[in-house]
Amino acid sequence: MSIGRLGFLAIVLLGVALAVQTYRLGRAETRAQHAALARDSAEAAADSTRGASARVHAVLGAELAAVQRRAVQQRQRADSLDRALGLERRARVLVELRADSLHAVATAAVTADSADSVRRARFEVREPPYTATADVALPRPPATGRLSLRVGLDPAPLELRIGCGTARGGIRPATVTAVGPRWLAFKLAAVEQDPAVCQAPAGLPPKKKPLPWREGLILLLGLRVLGVF
Q: What is the domain range of residue 77?
């Protein structure tokens, strides 16, 4: 076998070895990323709704409150609602809302109808977020009294923000923050999102890894141009 053929064979073997090594490194990197994502998801699943920091509440002021919870990063699977909407879901947040019951005492002047002696009164209550009005009519026995009650509830704007934290072990943790009025108790019952939301660089498309054989092919062509074989 000539020296040229031996050199060519050596270069081919070198290219193959390089391609195999590149493939192995890529597989190892993928496995490490999957393991880090699994650890992040386990931590997120164990998390629960918690109040935001004092710094956050200082920014929000006295009227608003914020709660947070880590998001489980897992691939989203379309359900019947997604199919009906015709949209690709990237995140899902289940929020439980609860307003405290209204308890108030009010007084009002009583008037009487001279014809049938029906006593009437109107009570008005403003206990944020409630606005209540009650009209009461009490005729003489054995007639039945009547209460007309109307209770209104203030609007409750609720803002949800999905944020990506600083990478740890190659994985950026995802956290959902809910902001709403202080009188409204809200809980993040379940939070999940697609891993691509936080793992892809902001504003940039995911970088494609070169194919395992590409480096070897480039090396062979380069050596061919240089006249090595």
A: 3-100+156-225
- Do the domain assignments include residue 106? no
* Whether 145 and 167 share a structural domain: no
- Per the listing, tokens 């609007």 go with 155
Question: Mind listing the pLDDT tens digit for each residue in 171-213?
Answer: 889 999 999 999 998 899 989 998 888 886 543 344 455 545 5
Stated pTM of the model: 0.63
- Cα–Cα distance for residue pair 11/78, rounded to 1 Å: 49
Are 30 and 50 in a shared domain? yes
Total domains in the fold of the chain = 2
Q: Are 179 and 65 within 8 A, CB to CB? A: yes
Beta strand residue intervals within the chain, DSSP E: 50-51, 64-70, 72-73, 91-99, 111-112, 119-127, 130-138, 146-153, 159-164, 174-181, 184-193
Residue 219: CB atoms within 10 Å: 16
Q: What's the CA gap between 11 and 14, in Å, rounded?
A: 5
Same domain? For 19 and 94 the reply is yes
Most confident of 1-5, 98-102, 126-130, 215-219: 126-130
Element (H, E) at 73: strand 72-73
Residue 118 shares a structural domain with residue 10:
no
- Residue 182 belongs to a domain: yes
According to DSSP, residue 89 is labeled: -
Give a yes or no: residue 213 inside a domain: yes
Give, rounded to a whole angstrom, the gap between the first and last alpha carbons of the chain.
14
